[in-house]
Amino acid sequence: MKDQEIFTFIEGETIDFVPLNIENIKLYAKWENNPKVRIYSRNIIPRTLEEMKKYLEPSDKRPKNKVSFEIWHKKDKKIIGFGEVSDIIWYNQQAYLGLLIGEPDYWGQKIGEEATRLLIEYAFNELNIFKLKASILVVNKGSWRCAEKNGFTRVATFKKDMYVNGEYLDNYIYSLLKEDWLKLKK
Question: Domain limits of the chain?
């Protein structure tokens, strides 16, 4: 990755968002299959390189309903995860926000907070999304705290909604309206 040219799309303080690069597919597969990481993204099926490639390939057969980025750590000059605005419903101006810090060494450093803030700004200011949602497992305290610090409100708890490691866990649903976010920014 050191020789790879990075094209910054969104610039942050400690991180940047850069377009996904198929050359990093092995890294993506590593994160998606890492038991420590995948528990929070609810990935229960092994992901092969071929499946990951197919997932990332653009298609004319389906409408564009997702915008994804690699998270580039500026100081360490490495990719540490990815973030996305997904499940976009253009006519309702709604979408889900998703984030994965694939390198556990970077957890607990407020990188998720910054990445969430950058995704929110992008979704509201550039994609003209009106309402963002997030779905977060109850055990993923870092993610739901991060969502709350960025203005998201917990609007529902789905009891025993996800089966993880032999038990059913609750799932929190969060929401953030553009108008509420604009008030928070003042």
Answer: 10-185
